[in-house]
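Hello forum,

I keep getting stuck at the same step: I have a sequence, I want structure tokens, and every attempt I make locally crashes halfway through. Rather than fight my setup again tonight, could one of you with a working pipeline run this one for me? It's a single chain of 135 residues.
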Amino acid sequence: MKPSERRKARRLAVQAIYSWQLSGNNIADVEHEFLTEQSVDGVDITYFRELLGGVATKKSQIDELITPFLTRPMDEVDPVEKAIVRLATYELTFRKDVPYKVAINEAIELAKAFGAEDGHKFVNGILDKLVARTK
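Reply #2:
Ran it on my machine without issues. Output:
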């Protein structure tokens, strides 16, 4: 597996998490939709599934970890940034094989690609605080 395959898996997972957050659809349906309707060339499908399913099943635990570092209620956080922070928090907490610098850098790049103008600063700030607390 190449790092680019995981990068593509994260990118697709953020989009699927975003869709799931907004639609409220069953996570299995969202997964199926993305795997059948999106280009998955060069995507680590196994990792995509783990990220999507992991964020969905551990959402409450992930949100508890994030909430202390928010300056506004969770429901007021931009949905794109929320999806990115949830994904990165999942990796930081449950995927010990992923170096924290990689998880944070990937999240920042996703925020630059999909988030608001300064969304990457918000994402970076939350994740830096999370990592500092868990070290």
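The radius of gyration is 14 Å. If your local run keeps crashing, start a new thread with the error log.
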